[in-house]
Amino acid sequence: MTTERPGRRATIADIAARAGVSPTAVSFALNDRPGISEHTRARILAAVAELGWRPNVAARALGGRRADTVGLVVARPARTLGIEPFFAQLVSGLQARLSTDLVALQLLVVEDLSAEVDVYRRWAAERRTDGVVVLDLERDDPRPDELVRMGLPAVLVGGDGTPGPMPAVFADDHAAMTSLAEHLAALGHVHVGHVGGIPAYVHSARRVAALHDAGARLGMNITTVPTDFSQDEAAAATRALLARDERPTAIVYDSDVAALAGVTVLAEAGLGVPGDISLASFDDSELVRLAHPPLTAMTRDTFELGELVAETVLSLVRGESVPDVVRAPTPELTVRGSTGRVPEVAA
Amino acid sequence: MTTERPGRRATIADIAARAGVSPTAVSFALNDRPGISEHTRARILAAVAELGWRPNVAARALGGRRADTVGLVVARPARTLGIEPFFAQLVSGLQARLSTDLVALQLLVVEDLSAEVDVYRRWAAERRTDGVVVLDLERDDPRPDELVRMGLPAVLVGGDGTPGPMPAVFADDHAAMTSLAEHLAALGHVHVGHVGGIPAYVHSARRVAALHDAGARLGMNITTVPTDFSQDEAAAATRALLARDERPTAIVYDSDVAALAGVTVLAEAGLGVPGDISLASFDDSELVRLAHPPLTAMTRDTFELGELVAETVLSLVRGESVPDVVRAPTPELTVRGSTGRVPEVAA
DNA sequence: GACGCCGACTAAAGCGCTTTAGCGACGACA
DNA sequence: TGTCGTCGCTAAAGCGCTTTAGTCGGCGTC
Predict the structure, then answer these.
(1) Is A125 helix (H, G, I), strand (E, B) or coil?
(2) Which residues pair with B222 in a beta bridge?
(3) Using a CB-CB distance cutoff of 8 angstroms, which residues of chain A are in contact with residue B62?
(4) Strand C nucleotides in reach of protein CB atoms, 7 A cut-off
(5) pLDDT tens digit string along A103-120?
(6) Spacing of A14 CA from D6 C1' in Å
(7) In the predicted structure, residue B2 carries a pLDDT above the cut 60
(8) What is the pLDDT at residue B134?
(9) DSSP structure class, residue B346
(10) What DSSP string describes A303-329?
(11) Which nucleotide lies closest to A62 by the C1' atom and the CA atom?
(12) Could you tell me the domains of chain B?
């Protein structure tokens, strides 16, 4: 156990004294730099262990070194984050990978994009983080350029798969949505509703495009209703779809939370799933697995995605070469009980 | 906008030069210390704004000041965190309150308690965080004493409401569980199952005690099955309860996620809720509101709880006086469609 | 008119590391 | 034998702030 010194905590000087060397030697030993004999190094490490000493991160960072911290700023209402499995899983994965390298994750939730950029500016000026992870890329998003300008290394999650000003981790939403559309087409569905996300988001737009492309190709009639990802709007969108003259025989939801809201609306309307109408969620998660019936969804390992993003940002801040576009696995179709053949009557 | 200097970023010396004063004056102006005239202060602040300068946090922390960071270490499997609304909401609330004071939240997920203590030790030695938030208090928990020993300020969430070695934010689980028991008793339930949490957790134990106390008082027969909070165990526990000779007419779940698992088991067993059996969840959340039928639950604002905890830890690290026990609002009963009168046959 | 005090400010030290420059000893090489 | 290179290590500067200990001029007091 650590022997508490009276008053102040141990510093590098205490270690040096105890090992009978200079502070420089301690620093060299600690950072695996050459010029310290094995014998001396061992003595130093022993002193470190005995006093339970750790270099003060602030002092370390001051010497122009890294802060060993990666930042994540999310521009969404703080209260809604708690129910987004995607987000929570991503953070868990990020955290898991970062912590193996003793790098901390700094989390911040803000109101909007401009507040988000302000935070980046602050962090960059304060040297608080070595790099950041950027989510929910939008069309003409100001963040990449701003980040380049302020010299804060960043990794984008999402994007359109084309090389941009900074590395991006990209999952092929288009291919994923296409396979979901093909699944529905194979079951005979023609009129398909789509409860989409925020159109400004690049990934939302890409999903809409994919679904409509596939619809055109496979002779399906797609109706997309955009939402802000909230349950209220998802429920309203579902009701709107049900009220259409040509009522859809299947509805695709952009997120798991939205899909659950949809399940509730259908239950209230007395419609059976998949007997009367088929449901599918683009995001898979515990939530849709627990629904009754469990929902057909595009499965991806979001935790793993987080790890991949962390890996990328770690390489980036270390100055290692990072590909412009890191491909994450494409989500794969998991068929569960919520999708079935189109009902006879409506066929 | 900031004028980028060639090479290095602005430091306090640049601001001082621009304002025609000494670095000391800049520091004083920034920290609202007396001894700077209004006129000079204004000139300094103008220079700060023009260069978009922010004090380097590392340099600041090095001067023995605060790190402006609060830590949260969670000893649970990282993958399960993503589906715990309680946890996500708490973090959101914490974050929201901390960020208004520009204090960062450091998140870390570890395997077990001993790894958690190691992280505290590291953080204390590195001066990385000013204080920490401790969750999931256990019986004979080693953490409070260890934290006191290493001099890391901490706030406990949970606990038993008695003053301990450090401030605790306490919600009266006992009273909450009692009101849930009374609700079931009023509906005529006698045989009540309880899918509990990890018995080592103080809050789990307190809930069990409350339920059994109320049972004794109200003539109910309570059967508690402990679980590790996972859905698998919750499902298994539910099946075990259903298989009992004296099948319960109501089941209480300690968490929302567990309750959802229970809903699925009942649906598979062909039992109607609340026709055949009543269900209630101790934790309320979006999840149980979305279930069909929506579940009766004990409602509390976890986001607000997070804010309260943040408030407490902020006071603590600032050296302000903090009560030993901060009382959070007691969760309140929200009756929804999942609890009903005990069925005739079983009554 | 001498003294003390106060307000406004500065010089310099110090926080705990990392890093650069350099030093002495020793062996290799010519 | 002299020189150079290398190894193992140290002295000292420097990172960008905060803080302590002043300095200096003006004003009130007796």
Answers:
(1) helix
(2) B192
(3) 56, 58-59, 62
(4) 7-12, 14-21
(5) 889 888 888 899 899 899
(6) 30
(7) no
(8) 96
(9) T
(10) HHHHHHHHHHHHHHHTT----SEEEPP
(11) D15
(12) 12-55 (1.10.260.40), 69-171+302-327 (3.40.50.2300), 173-299 (3.40.50.2300)
